[in-house]
């Protein structure tokens, strides 16, 4: 018996929900894969990277440049390059399940020293146009032997070091498979000076671009002022 147009319409109507489910399944799978391996979004919650990144900035990070991590392991594949000096990196804080954003100051084998808030890498003063200092106080250095300083820093960092490692630090040698990270807002950043070297297995990605920025200070009825329009689209490649 020949099928009528009515039969075809009924069949199409029955298949429509299944096709809709399939289409959305493909979209969801694509989004999950993109977020897992290519690009992910992050929000800046603190002022430790001011003025490069502000509280309320939302950025995309490129996840695959430092290698695609195989889920539930520390193994990475298809790595394009390691973090480099001045790159802004996103990583999982080693001691809590928090995501941090800092700037890579030195890599494995480099010797880092801070003298009165000035950073030296391999005995050369860094030229850092991006840094910010709000506290004029300069704290004295912890009085430790060099080998003690290195050992304590590598093992657990100076969690309670306070200003004594904020303004005068090191010298320390960055261990293998690690980098040294600092916030651009140097007087208000909890970074490698305090908790030690960052192992590269904690890296999540490299900052890419600001796609949104929200200022919490203006009242909600002035919503057009809460959005920092001038920051949207800024490249934060590092």
What attributes does this structure have?
238 residues, alpha+beta, Umud Fragment, subunit A, seven-stranded antiparallel sheet, four-stranded antiparallel sheet, 5 helices, 26% strand, globular
Oligomerization state: single chain
User: Strand count, sense and closure of the main sheet?
Assistant: 7 strands, antiparallel
**So what's the overall shape?**
globular
Fraction in beta strands: 25-35%
Word description of this protein:
23% of the residues lie in helices and 26% in strands. It has 238 residues and is an alpha+beta fold. It is globular, with a radius of gyration of 24 Å. The model has no long low-confidence stretch (mean pLDDT 85).
Topology overview:
Elements: H1 5-37, E1 39-43, E2 57-62, E3 68-69, E4 76-77, E5 88-92, E6 99-107, E7 111-115, E8 118-121, E9 124-125, H2 146-155, H3 163-166, E10 169-173, E11 178-182, H4 192-195, E12 198-199, E13 203-213, H5 223-226
Antiparallel strand pairs: 1-2, 2-13, 3-4, 5-6, 5-13, 6-11, 7-8, 7-10, 8-9, 11-12
Summary of the model, kept short:
The protein is α+β, with helices and mostly antiparallel strands. The protein contains five helices and 13 strands.
């Amino acid at each position: 018996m020949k099928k009528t147009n009515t039969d075809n319409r009924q069949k199409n109507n029955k298949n429509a929900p299944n096709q809709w489910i399939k289409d959305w399944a493909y979209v969801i799978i694509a989004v999950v894969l993109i977020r897992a391996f290519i690009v992910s979004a992050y929000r800046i919650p603190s002022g430790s990277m001011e003025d490069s990144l502000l509280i309320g900035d939302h950025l995309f990070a490129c996840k695959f440049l430092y290698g695609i991590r195989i889920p539930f392991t520390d193994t990475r594949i298809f790595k394009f390059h390691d973090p480099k000096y001045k790159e802004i990196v996103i990583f999982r804080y080693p001691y809590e399940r928090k995501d941090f954003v800092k700037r890579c100051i030195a890599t494995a084998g480099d010797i880092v020293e801070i003298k009165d808030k000035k950073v030296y890498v391999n005995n050369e003063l860094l030229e850092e146009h991006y840094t910010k200092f709000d506290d004029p106080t300069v704290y004295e250095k912890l009085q430790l032997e060099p080998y003690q300083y290195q050992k304590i820093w590598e093992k657990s960092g100076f969690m309670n070091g306070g200003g004594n490692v904020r303004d005068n630090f090191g010298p320390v040698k960055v261990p293998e498979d690690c980098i040294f990270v600092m916030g651009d807002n140097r007087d208000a950043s909890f970074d490698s000076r305090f908790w030690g070297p960052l192992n590269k297995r904690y890296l999540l990605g490299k900052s890419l671009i600001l796609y949104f920025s929200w200022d919490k200070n203006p009242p909600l009825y002035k919503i057009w002022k809460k959005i920092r329009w001038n920051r949207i689209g800024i490249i934060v490649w590092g």
